[in-house]
Design brief:
Elements lengths: L1 H25 L3 H13 L6 H20 L4 H21 L4 H26 L3 H14 L5 H12 L3 H13 L6 E8 L5 E3 L4 H10 L2 E9 L3 H14 L3 H14 L4 H13 L3 H14 L4 H13 L3 H14 L4 H24 L7 H28 L4 H16 L1
Helix pairs in contact: 1-2, 1-3, 2-3, 3-4, 3-5, 4-5, 5-6, 6-7, 7-8, 8-10, 10-11, 10-12, 11-12, 12-13, 14-15, 15-16, 16-17, 17-18
């Protein structure tokens, strides 16, 4: 009998505390509300389902009030998101909608605030901030996966690649492709266009209530190839070739017209010494993009690194046929020409210091000058296109000095 009395007493106390909470939250008395919430939290084990739901409901509102009053703004807004999600999850599990119905307008207002702040930060190029705000918007409303996509995209813009990688992998796991409709309307208060994500009912309700005007629907294109391409870039930069391969191949399969997807695969197979796969995709690439200077140049560079200068020359010649003003190709030709100097220099050094060798030495010196002059011709043409390459400018100066001295 005494245990029953204790239980009843606890339940009665919680009812009183919850009434106090309602009053304090409505008055935005955050200090006293926080104290009462702590008391209720200590009694949650003995609370009824309705009382637990009420606790989450008032806790979320108090955290929003704290944030709006400037107290630990970001921290309290994050806590409010967690509390709202806890409430909705709890009432789903207990088959109740009592407080969920009441929290939804508060949730939508918070969501709108998060998205507006994210857009403002994005416009001001505060990409790291906007990425985190879009992430919070997604956590608050996981139906709007576009917020997760924006979080990943803005993290890339901020060079915050570790965070971007986790968000992109979430998008892959969700099989997100971005083909959707975003519902927006203009706020009567601020005049700004506000996004309601994929929630058409909320947008229409806002327009009907008069808080918003000019409803519009934005159609979003397929971004799945972009997701795989960006994830490939991040993993390649980390030299995580094993994990990058699957994403690189999928990006290429999704969009074979994106030259970057092909270049990623070539880079991957070259750096993992799988030249059979490299040659396969290189051949396919040249057939698909016969006039793409970037592809041809990358193929030339790889052949140079592999000491296959004759093959490199073929690609560089093709580039200059397409564009005689290609700076990189001209500079590469100069570099290839200078490589010949090592062999000539070795021959000169191997000659004995005798009168009989003078004729051969003179011939080799003329050959050396010709190499330097040919390289100089390529370099000076490149310099006319771009005179801000300090390394090139220094090299030209050294070659001119050598030719004048000899």
């Amino acid at each position: 009998m005494s245990m029953l009395l204790i239980a009843c007493s606890s339940s009665f106390a919680q009812k009183n505390e919850l009434k106090d909470l309602e009053r304090l939250v409505n008055r935005k008395n955050t200090t006293e509300a926080t104290v009462v919430l702590e008391k209720v939290e200590a009694m949650l084990n003995d609370a009824t389902e309705d009382q637990k739901a009420a606790y989450y409901f008032y806790k979320a509102q108090n955290e929003i009030n704290l944030a709006n009053s400037g107290v630990a703004f970001n921290e309290n807004r994050q806590k409010a998101i967690q509390s709202i999600n806890q409430l909705i999850k709890f009432e789903n599990e207990t088959k109740s909608k009592k407080y969920t119905t009441e929290i939804l307008p508060i949730k939508n207002t918070l969501l709108a605030s998060l998205v507006d702040d994210a857009i403002d930060n994005n416009r001001n190029k505060n990409y790291k901030n906007s990425s985190r705000l879009f992430e919070q918007a997604y956590i608050l409303n996981t139906n709007d996966t576009i917020y997760l996509y924006h979080a990943a995209s803005d993290a890339i813009n901020a060079n915050d690649f570790d965070f971007a990688e986790t968000k992109l992998k979430q998008l892959v796991k969700l099989n997100y492709n971005g083909k959707s409709q975003t519902y927006v309307a203009s706020s009567q208060t601020t005049g700004d266009v506000q996004s309601f994500g994929s929630d058409k009912k909320a947008r229409d309700l806002a327009v009907k209530s008069g808080t918003h005007t000019k409803p519009e629907t934005i159609f979003n294109n397929n971004v799945k190839p972009e997701i795989y391409t960006n994830l490939t870039h991040i993993l390649l930069n980390k030299q995580n070739y094993t994990e990058a391969e699957a994403y690189a191949l999928e990006a290429y399969n999704l969009d074979k017209n994106n030259i970057n997807n092909l270049l990623n695969i070539l880079f991957l197979y070259y750096n993992t010494n799988r030249l059979d796969q490299y040659q396969k995709f290189a051949k396919e690439g040249v057939e698909r993009f016969p006039e793409n200077e970037s592809l041809l140049y990358n193929l030339a560079v790889i052949h140079v690194q592999n000491n296959e200068n004759e093959e490199a020359n073929k690609y560089l010649n093709r580039i200059l046929q397409l564009n005689p003003q290609n700076f990189d190709a001209l500079k590469a030709f100069g570099n290839l020409e200078l490589q010949k100097d090592a062999d000539v220099t070795n021959k000169i050094n191997a000659l004995p210091n005798t009168a009989a060798s003078d004729k051969k030495r003179a011939e080799l010196m003329n050959e050396k000058k010709l190499i330097y002059q040919t390289a100089l011709d390529y370099y000076t043409t490149a310099q006319e296109i771009n005179n801000k390459d300090e390394g090139l400018n220094e090299l030209i100066s050294q070659i001119k000095q050598f030719l004048n001295q000899n």
